């Protein structure tokens, strides 16, 4: 079995790491490069930056953050938020990112996935899928931070983006996100079991047991968390030590 990856996620606005609740009360809480360096020290397998400014005017700031991080951190960097064009992909990758994540833009223009995969390789293309239960036993793709229900079946969408050339899926359950009650096992299991590309579980992690739970009950390749790491409730080392005790393979644990 391949080692499972642990991925801290940082929300970046105007060059600063920020946190908020339900997209309000946004507060600056740190420098993204310094945060990334600390997560690298802890043994993170990858780091994800989400540009919540997501505007053309803010793109230069994010590119500078990526460039400075790539000079100091030696784990893969994935950057998402506001990516709409092939030029956006190129700019972020040239700055030093290893992967680029697209969400709403892929929904509006699915061919962007194929074009990016053809130009840069599938390994660079991550499609972020935010999914929410429809109350009838299915999951719908939602965009704009969960505020807009596209009506697209999330399972069918995952299959489609795979066929278009996505190399990985970042799967966030909007039902569990922020609850700290655990990852959405049903959603993650359904999608990770039917695809031959890695699926990153996201949304709802609140304790060590939630990490082992998602890996024991689904085929997820990685687990992503944000505030849990950012506010020091857990470290990457603690998560990896916990997983190792549960006989779940992880990459080297930092001393």
TrEMBL record:
Domain of life here? Bacteria
Cellular localization per UniProt = Cytoplasm
Keywords from the UniProt entry: Amino-acid biosynthesis, Cytoplasm, Histidine biosynthesis, Lyase
Name any one GO molecular function.
lyase activity
Q: Which CDD domains match?
A: HisF
Q: Where is the active site?
A: 11, 130
> What GO terms fall under cellular component here?
cytoplasm
Annotated pathway: Amino-acid biosynthesis; L-histidine biosynthesis; L-histidine from 5-phospho-alpha-D-ribose 1-diphosphate: step 5/9
Q: What is its EC number?
A: 4.3.2.10
Instruction: Identify the enzyme class.
Output: lyase
Its predominant location is cytoplasm
Which reaction is the catalytic activity of this chain? Answer: 5-[(5-phospho-1-deoxy-D-ribulos-1-ylimino)methylamino]-1-(5-phospho-beta-D-ribosyl)imidazole-4-carboxamide + L-glutamine = D-erythro-1-(imidazol-4-yl)glycerol 3-phosphate + 5-amino-1-(5-phospho-beta-D-ribosyl)imidazole-4-carboxamide + L-glutamate + H(+)
Cross-referenced InterPro entries: Aldolase_TIM (IPR013785), His_biosynth (IPR006062), HisF (IPR004651), IGPS_HisA/HisF (IPR050064), RibuloseP-bd_barrel (IPR011060)
Q: Which HAMAP family match?
A: HisF
| Quaternary structure, from the entry | Heterodimer of HisH and HisF.
Family in the record: Belongs to the HisA/HisF family.
Record's protein name: Imidazole glycerol phosphate synthase subunit HisF
Tell me what organism the protein belongs to: Acetanaerobacterium elongatum
Q: What is the lineage of its organism?
A: Bacteria, Bacillati, Bacillota, Clostridia, Eubacteriales
